[in-house]
Amino acid sequence: MYSAVLATALTGFAVVKAQAPSPVPGVTGALGNAQIVTDNVPGTTYTAFVNETATSSITGFVAGTANANGTGVQFSISLSGFPDASLGPFLYHIHDQPVPANGNCTATLAHLDSYIRGEKPPCDKTHPETCQDGDLAGKHGNITSDPFNTASSFLDLYLSTQQGPSSFFGNRSIVIHSSNTTRLSCANFTLTSGADTGSNATVPGGNGTVAGGSTPAPFTGGATAAFVSAGAVLAGVAALML
User: Fold this and answer.
1) Cα–Cα dist 182/229, whole Å
2) What's this model's pTM, rounded to 2 decimal places?
3) Which neighbouring-strand residues pair with 160?
């Protein structure tokens, strides 16, 4: 009897992992679709450096550079040291808040979402203007290799390198997730090239605010919470039958 129950639990776990929701075309945020940013200062670069920590072996960087014509941001990514591939494909997003000094990735809150679109249903990358502006994985693809290097940097039309608009990402953070959205590692963006042309006024976000400046207290570490494995879930199921 117990073996039958455990087999059912295992089957259920596999089904939940397999039945991921599908993107729905044309989901518009409460404030409309994302607007293309055309006034970025060319050459301005913000980079998030991801370092190995006690809880994560992921290292590398995510860099966003204002396009040469001022329209959108070119992203270059180089990351390696991901955990077991069974936890992937891995996701990466710009989150609304910076990582605090204690390294708590949860404190970065939700994805940057200037137009209040929400995370569900998933982003449809064929309609990037309807996605959350911070959903880089949704718009440009998940992390499916280790190491992960963008063969050629991709252009995101909806993010800003200038302080002021809520699409500004320079004082926010990058967060890397497993496929079940567990936060594995995180790091703050800091100015690494070009001039900081904005003021130190509070920058509004779609789901919060980031107080002044483009360089928050730097932290380049991983998540503080441990990953809860499928084995632990099944152990809990077994304990309930005792």
Assistant:
1) 11
2) 0.73
3) 168
